[in-house]
């Protein structure tokens, strides 16, 4: 069979037949969207997974009778495309290698892509080709790019609305920043550190004379327990910060230059000059020594670390290690300095019997030294988690005594900053953070920057309330969303460089690339009329968007201002009202912390409640033979290459079956090849049986139909829950197992389920199903109704009979293993009295009642002991069905049993020893092999 030929044939037919171009109607609608791809490279296996899940759901819903809208656009704003154009223009060796080797761009074409416009043109065409050759049921009339003039009009309207609502503010905020590009950066702009967040450290000012040692900490509430300070034995810098002399690492000085503080370098200073000196704790007034520590990371915050050995496992272990080493003597310091250092316990943990928390957890985990880094990290997390959630401040913390740690932490921070004894320092949660231009990023406090006011408590509360009403798939991911929403802070929404829409009221700034990608799903509704020329940029004034998207204004007045026909405007409004809201947004889990949050925030800010998103589904990443894929570094499997090598349906079936929900999938070539083999077998079955006219319906046929009804029910339940792996396991692999058994048993009427089987599989392998379907029909199977579970077709008797037969064959083959040169098997069915005993036991409430009833039979009274022993056994082991016509089932299948076991089947019980005959049970005949 020719996968590619079949796929191209039906892709053309769907396009010519406009199969996936929905129009407004009186049918139920289903509006599904997936993230439009960013066009700085070819689509890869990660896109393939997210997009194929979306298409499978779209196809499933379409077959359920929904009027499905599944559109697609392309994201091109931001700096990555500009950076890529510059690298290509310079013939950057690494870039050329990555794009020719991994993105499959021919060298002669790549070197022509020296401007952002050329890159957008090239990769938008390539992306559309890729999305078509895998057979996605997209309405291509609605495509656009985020640099289209009409789209920019839409973004301008959106940002005017946000500003009117007070949700865009100007201020100073920390942002991820590229010094080279002189721009804030978001996830799309980074080579590394996409998951890095900005962490706010509290700086506590310990003083030695006129010098300040600014210790940075995430636990300011433990300042009462500081016993010493740590510095790395290296060169530090004395810098003037807002008129104060701070001693910080050289790396910290470079970071301070990007804050809103007045910073000036004064001189270098060796940390050794400060070892052994005493610094004053600004909160307690106590003096604590400055000690050397190799573990101090000068690239983390200020490079000055306060030591709290009672509550910080690293500090406790470091002090123990210092006692054993000769590091102090190296700097001329006596070990006597350590005698006065004792852990100061500040926190009591409810439900824990800790004497000194850090010490107790370190000993419990068996930490021996600072070299046990993983164990120390675990100890630190254990202590912090317990103290933060269950800890209460003790009396030695003064006015904070009795407060929960979670509250005291913020109070101490505020008091330190307000008193001038503290400050803040921003740092990345993960490192390194590298811009696509190759520059190491910093946290910059940007002044007079435009920010989305995500910290607005009223806005945030509305989002949290809607989160509880909408669906998150999988449901347990709702907690992840809740946490992200609660922690979300103001976000810079503008930048100086890149592609994008200018802020309409401050045209020196561009709206950054994630901030213009929040409600573009609304734009899909009007995009088809832009593409056909009905709508032009000059028509798209704010009143147009107010009317179409919000229902505000008078149609005749808007028509006069826009130059559009009143009827057309009313039609657009009706279409928006019909298609919106988004019923499902299916996306990768990497977008939970950014785009998906913004998607919720902006819809809730801009639209009435009836138009808020109904559901979000989250899926995981895709690796390649166990290795993480990277668009900029490789390895990478493009969507086109996967389809070219294996075919669209093989690619689709594999990626949908590879993993469930947010679990990561791993693309493994051998497994993909196995899927190809399975699909070829399926096609062969169709060739042999699909066109074959069914004969007389047998009990085996009824078993097949009955089992297939369970397949239908299970598949629908899985797809309703967006569990594509479970759905394919059922609809394809379990169904194949049932079919194999049916054919082994001699079944000939496979055609009786084949139509429904094809329909069941259409969302996953639409091309093959369309091809086979058309051997009999002239309609698109993609537009047929999905099979429904029909309980009237369930035949419990046929299923029980077949399971009985399977079990019998398994038992024979198991016993056969222990017999040397087996030739024949004797099958002994249970005696009639045993069947009667089982029937009686099933109806009786107890063994006593069953025995009483059976003893009414005169013949059974003569064998009372045997009856009683049998009843004990069945009450202990459970009841088997007594009304099964075992003898008929087995004798009808005699030749099949002989084929499956390789033994001659006999029923002459005289050849079976009496002890063997006695073990027969209803539903479980005795087996004797010789």
Shape: globular
Number of strands: 31
| Strand portion | 15-25%
User: What integer is the average pLDDT?
Assistant: 94
What kind of sheet is the major sheet?
A: 6 strands, mixed
Q: Structural class of the helices, strands and pairings?
A: alpha/beta
Helix content: 40-55%
Radius of gyration: 36 Å
Number of helices: 35
Spans where pLDDT lies below 50 across 5 or more residues: none
Report strand order across the widest sheet. 11-9-10-7-6-17
Distance from first to last alpha carbon: 48 Å
Written overview of the protein:
- The chain has 930 residues and is an alpha/beta fold.
- It contains 35 helices and 31 strands.
- The strands form nine sheets. Strands 11-9-10-7-6-17 form a six-stranded mixed β-sheet. Strands 2-1-24-25-20 form a five-stranded parallel β-sheet. A four-stranded antiparallel β-sheet has the order 4-3-19-21.
- Helix 24 runs antiparallel to helix 25, helix 24 packs parallel to helix 26 (751-761) and helix 29 packs across helix 30.
- The two termini are 48 Å apart.
- The mean pLDDT is 94.
SSE topology:
Elements: H1 3-16, E1 29-33, H2 45-63, E2 67-69, H3 80-89, H4 93-101, H5 107-110, H6 116-133, H7 149-164, E3 168-178, E4 183-184, E5 190-192, E6 198-208, E7 211-217, E8 228-231, E9 235-241, E10 244-249, H8 250-256, E11 263-270, E12 278-280, E13 287-292, E14 305-307, H9 313-324, H10 327-330, E15 347-349, H11 357-365, H12 373-390, E16 391-393, H13 405-419, E17 422-428, E18 434-435, E19 442-452, H14 457-469, E20 471-473, H15 478-487, E21 491-492, E22 494-495, E23 510-511, H16 520-531, H17 542-550, H18 555-562, H19 566-579, E24 584-588, H20 595-606, E25 615-619, E26 622-624, E27 627-628, H21 639-646, H22 648-657, E28 665-667, H23 669-689, H24 699-720, H25 724-744, H26 751-761, H27 766-773, H28 796-816, E29 824-828, H29 832-843, H30 847-854, H31 858-861, H32 864-877, H33 886-892, H34 894-901, E30 904-906, H35 914-917, E31 926-929
Parallel strand pairs: 1-2, 1-24, 7-10, 8-13, 20-25, 24-25, 26-28, 29-30
Antiparallel strand pairs: 3-4, 3-19, 5-18, 6-7, 6-17, 8-14, 9-10, 9-11, 12-13, 15-16, 19-21, 22-23, 26-27, 29-31
């Amino acid at each position: 069979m020719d996968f590619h030929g079949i796929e191209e044939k039906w892709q053309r037919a769907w396009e010519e037949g406009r199969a996936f171009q929905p129009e407004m109607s009186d049918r139920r609608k289903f509006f599904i969207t997936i993230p439009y791809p960013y066009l700085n490279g070819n689509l890869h296996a990660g896109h393939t997974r997210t997009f194929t899940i979306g298409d499978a759901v779209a196809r499933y819903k379409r077959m359920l009778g929904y009027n499905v809208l599944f559109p697609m656009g392309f994201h091109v704003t931001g700096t990555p495309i500009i950076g890529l154009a510059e690298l290509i223009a310079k013939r950057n060796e690494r870039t050329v290698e990555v794009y020719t080797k991994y993105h499959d761009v021919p060298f002669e074409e790549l070197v022509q892509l020296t401007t952002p416009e050329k890159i957008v043109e090239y990769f938008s065409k390539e992306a559309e080709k890729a999305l078509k050759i895998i057979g996605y049921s997209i309405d291509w009339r609605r495509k656009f790019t985020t640099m289209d003039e009409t789209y920019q009009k839409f973004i301008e309207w959106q940002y005017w609305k946000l500003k009117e609502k007070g949700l865009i503010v100007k201020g100073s905020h920390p942002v991820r920043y590229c010094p080279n590009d002189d721009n804030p950066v978001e996830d799309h702009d980074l080579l590394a550190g996409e998951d890095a967040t900005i962490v706010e450290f509290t700086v506590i000012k310990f003083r030695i004379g006129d010098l300040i040692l600014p210790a940075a900490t995430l636990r300011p509430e433990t300042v009462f327990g500081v016993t010493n300070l740590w510095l790395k034995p290296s060169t530090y810098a004395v810098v003037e910060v807002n008129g104060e002399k701070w001693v910080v690492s050289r790396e910290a000085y470079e970071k301070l230059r990007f804050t809103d503080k007045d910073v000036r370098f004064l001189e270098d200073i060796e940390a050794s000059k400060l070892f052994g000196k005493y610094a004053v704790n600004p909160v307690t007034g106590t003096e604590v020594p400055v000690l050397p520590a190799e573990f101090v990371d000068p690239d983390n915050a200020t490079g000055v670390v306060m030591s709290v050995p009672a509550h910080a496992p690293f500090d406790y272990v470091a002090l123990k290690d210092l006692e054993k080493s000769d590091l102090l003597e190296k700097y001329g310091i006596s070990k006597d300095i350590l005698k006065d250092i004792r852990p100061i316990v500040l926190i009591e943990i409810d439900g824990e019997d800790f004497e000194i928390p850090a010490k107790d957890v370190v000993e419990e985990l068996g930490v021996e030294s600072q070299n046990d880094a993983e164990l120390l990290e675990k100890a630190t997390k254990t202590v912090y988690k317990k103290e933060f959630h269950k800890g209460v401040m003790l009396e030695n913390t003064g006015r904070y005594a009795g407060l929960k740690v979670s509250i005291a932490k913020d109070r101490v921070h505020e008091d330190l900053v307000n008193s001038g004894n503290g400050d803040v320092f921003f740092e990345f949660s993960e490192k390194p953070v590298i811009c696509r231009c190759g520059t190491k990023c910093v946290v910059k406090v940007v002044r007079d920057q435009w920010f989305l006011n995500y910290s607005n408590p009223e806005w945030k509360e509305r989002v949290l309330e809607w989160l509880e009403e909408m669906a998150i798939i999988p449901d347990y991911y709702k907690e992840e969303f809740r946490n992200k929403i609660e922690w979300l802070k103001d976000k810079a929404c503008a930048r100086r460089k890149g592609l994008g829409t200018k802020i309409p009221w401050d045209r020196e700034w561009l709206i950054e690339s994630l901030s213009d990608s929040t409600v573009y799903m609304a734009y899909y509704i009007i995009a088809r009329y832009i593409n056909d020329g009905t709508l032009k940029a000059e028509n798209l004034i704010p009143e147009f968007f107010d009317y179409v998207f919000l229902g505000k204004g008078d149609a005749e007045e808007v028509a006069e201002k826009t130059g559009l026909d009143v009827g057309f405007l009313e039609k657009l409004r009706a279409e928006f009202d019909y298609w919106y809201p988004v019923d499902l947004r299916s996306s990768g889990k990497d977008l939970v912390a950014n785009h998906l949050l913004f998607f919720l925030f902006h819809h809730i800010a801009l639209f009435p409640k009836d138009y808020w998103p109904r559901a979000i589904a989250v899926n995981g990443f895709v690796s390649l033979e166990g290795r993480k894929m990277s668009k900029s570094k490789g390895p990478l499997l493009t969507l086109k290459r996967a389809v070219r090598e294996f075919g669209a349906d093989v690619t689709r079936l594999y990626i949908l079956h590879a993993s469930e929900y947010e679990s990561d999938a791993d693309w493994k070539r051998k497994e993909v090849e196995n899927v190809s083999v399975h699909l070829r077998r399926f096609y062969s079955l169709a060739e042999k049986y699909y066109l074959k006219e069914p004969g007389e319906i047998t009990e085996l046929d009824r078993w097949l139909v009955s089992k297939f009804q369970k397949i239908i029910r299970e598949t629908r339940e899985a797809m309703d829950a967006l569990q594509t792996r479970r759905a394919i396991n059922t609809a394809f692999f379990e169904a194949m197992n049932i079919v194999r058994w049916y054919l082994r048993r001699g079944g000939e009427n496979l055609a009786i389920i084949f139509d429904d089987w094809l329909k069941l599989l259409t969302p996953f392998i639409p091309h093959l199903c369309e091809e086979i379907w058309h051997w009999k029909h002239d309609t698109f199977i993609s537009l047929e109704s999905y099979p429904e579970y029909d309980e009237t077709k369930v035949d419990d008797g046929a299923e029980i009979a077949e399971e009985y037969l399977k079990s019998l064959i398994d038992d024979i083959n198991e016993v056969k293993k222990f017999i040397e040169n087996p030739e024949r098997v004797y099958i002994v069915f249970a005696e009639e009295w045993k069947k009667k005993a089982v029937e009686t036991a099933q109806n009786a409430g107890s063994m006593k009642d069953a025995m009483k009833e059976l003893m009414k039979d005169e013949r059974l009274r003569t064998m009372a002991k045997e009856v009683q022993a049998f009843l004990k056994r069945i009450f202990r082991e459970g009841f088997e069905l007594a009304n099964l016509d075992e003898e008929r089932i087995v004798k009808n299948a005699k030749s099949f049993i002989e084929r499956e076991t390789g033994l001659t089947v006999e029923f002459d019980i005289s050849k079976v020893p009496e002890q063997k005959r006695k073990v027969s049970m209803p539903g479980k005949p005795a087996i004797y092999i010789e």
